[in-house]
Amino acid sequence: MDKHRDQVEFRYEIKYRLEQVAIGVVLQTLQNHPASFRPLFPDRIVNNIYFDTPDLNSYKDNVIGIADRQKLRVRWYGAQKRVVENAQLEVKIKSNQLGRKKILSVPDFTFEDLAPLTERVNERSSLLLQPTLVNRYLRSYYGSNDGKFRITIDQELAYFSFYTGQVFDRFTHQEAVIVVELKYAAADELESGFIKQYLPFRQTKSSKYVNGIQLCLLN
To answer: What is the domain-level CATH number for residue 177?
Structure first.
């Protein structure tokens, strides 16, 4: 039986995609926020491999705004190594701005042979999926003083598409943006207005998967 842990309850995931905004401005905003946001963990590198159908159904569902959708990705942390260890499969379930995920184990793998990993992913999908995109970014973690609200800050985003190269060896595209994400339980929606009013950023629809596919394939 799989060992897994689920994020059972849906939570809100509010995103702010910031262009031409210095990271110092973002950090100063959090330091001055009346909810007293403070760092939760040391910064770390996040890596993902996204899986989609050959026709990019997951990408298309996101672009056209399908409210209820599912995305599968394999995630691990730290610097790039030949053998990827301690990765996990995340089945991300979205309903508008609400999201939850199921986390499952996957075998160690290398980029030279993704077949075993792809087979494992397809055990959890009713569709035939294949790896489509790799991305990496540096993530910072912050939490409010009452523990109800979390903010992540992602920067140094880089991408590689399996549509333009069969074996990943380096990232081919970068984005000079910062992605801020506010996360909180659905039960805390009424209190979220206080948090949002002190975030002087414009809320956006921002999917790293969609942005990466467009950056790699359309530019």
So the answer is: 3.20.100.30
9: which residues sit within 8 A by CB, 6+ positions away? 100, 185, 186
Residue 23, domain extent = 4-218
Please report, to the nearest 10 degrees, the dihedral formed by the alpha carbons of residues 143, 146, 149, 151 taken in order: -20
Count of structural domains, the chain: 1
pLDDT in tens, the chain (219 residues): 344 556 568 899 999 999 999 999 999 999 999 999 999 999 999 999 999 999 999 999 999 988 888 899 999 999 988 899 999 999 999 888 888 999 999 999 999 999 999 999 999 888 999 999 999 999 999 999 999 999 999 999 999 999 888 788 889 999 999 999 999 999 999 999 999 999 999 998 889 999 999 999 876
pTM for the whole thing?
0.92
CA proximity to 15, closest of 156, 144, 175, 154: 154
Number of other residues whose CB lies within 10 A of the CB of residue 191: 15
Interatomic CA distance for residues 104 and 87, integer angstroms: 9
Helix (H, G, I), strand (E, B) or coil at 102: strand
Q: Residue 215 is encoded by which pair of tokens?
A: 């950056």
Q: What's the sign of the alpha-carbon dihedral 194, 200, 206, 208?
A: negative
